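Students often ask why inverse folding is considered easier than folding. One informal answer: many sequences map to the same fold, so there is more than one right answer. In these notes we will look at a single instance of the problem. The structure comes first.
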């Protein structure tokens, strides 16, 4: 079968396509080509593994149509094109199902992809799926529980383990993606960073659009800096300057610990150590803060 495609991935997209990890994230800055990468991965996994079934979702159904579906059917799989005809594709708008009629197991069903928003209580419908892959566009909009649940649905027997993928795209935001993929670097997780400089298909003056925006906004969405998350209490925080390499403080230091049990949000325990002044002076000072005495 001949497949017709004009897609020429850039270096960061190639790295993401070739990642061997099961859970792969791609993105960072705006303009890095993350939606195109996601759509190409959806097509690749559907074509390479006959009888595959994948889920593609975003928090909002309308937003999914304006991003992933717009990219898929305008640049990746154009209805009526030679590639569309060769793959015998069909898209059911009512159900959101894309079928690859020519890509089927012998005597079995063809590869299919379900596109859906996670509004309208669709999360309940995800629990019984038998997936070969899933893809979440703008995963920072989606709760971690959805990602974890979908990870347990990667159980399609006709797809080898190395090809059972959980794919996400994301811009820099504080939350579970930063924790899982970037801070903790969990096993079998990989995040490929890209910014506008990696994408040769952008207009030469693309960066000029960000000139009048706040620096933190440019750091996040133009340069893909994950340490520039919005809403920080300490907006000048710089990990290269403010984070001290791990060491064991001397016993003479004053050690403090604060605990918030978190009735609505996860609990937090914060530890601190101070070498300034004597223990007696610091304890007296802290007592003034706690009791409110002047």
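Output (designed amino acids):
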């Amino acid at each position: 079968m001949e497949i017709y495609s004009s897609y020429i991935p850039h270096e960061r997209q190639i790295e993401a396509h070739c990642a061997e990890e099961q859970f792969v994230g791609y993105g960072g800055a705006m303009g890095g080509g993350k939606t195109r990468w996601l759509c190409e991965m959806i097509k690749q996994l559907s074509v390479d593994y006959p009888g595959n079934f994948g889920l593609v979702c975003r928090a909002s159904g309308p937003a999914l149509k304006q991003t992933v579906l717009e990219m898929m059917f305008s640049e990746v799989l154009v209805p009526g094109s030679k590639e569309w005809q060769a793959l015998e594709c069909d898209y059911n708008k009512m159900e959101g199902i894309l079928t690859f009629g020519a890509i089927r197991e012998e005597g079995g069903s063809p590869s299919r992809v379900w596109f859906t928003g996670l509004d309208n209580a669709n999360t309940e419908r995800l629990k019984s799926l038998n997936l070969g892959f899933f893809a979440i566009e703008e995963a920072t909009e989606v709760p971690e529980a959805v990602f974890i649940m979908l990870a347990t649905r990667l159980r399609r027997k006709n797809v080898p383990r190395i090809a059972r993928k959980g794919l996400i795209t994301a811009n820099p935001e504080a939350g579970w993606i930063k924790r899982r993929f970037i801070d903790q670097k969990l096993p079998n997780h990989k995040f490929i960073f890209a910014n506008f400089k990696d994408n040769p298909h952008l207009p030469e003056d693309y960066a000029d659009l960000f000139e009048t925006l706040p620096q933190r906004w440019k750091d996040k969405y133009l340069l893909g800096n994950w340490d520039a998350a919005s809403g920080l209490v300490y907006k000048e925080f710089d990990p290269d300057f403010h984070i001290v390499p791990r060491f064991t403080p001397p016993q003479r230091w004053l050690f403090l610990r604060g605990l918030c049990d978190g009735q609505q949000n996860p609990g937090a325990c914060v530890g601190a150590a101070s070498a300034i002044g004597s223990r007696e002076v610091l304890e007296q000072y802290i007592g003034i803060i706690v009791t409110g005495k002047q």
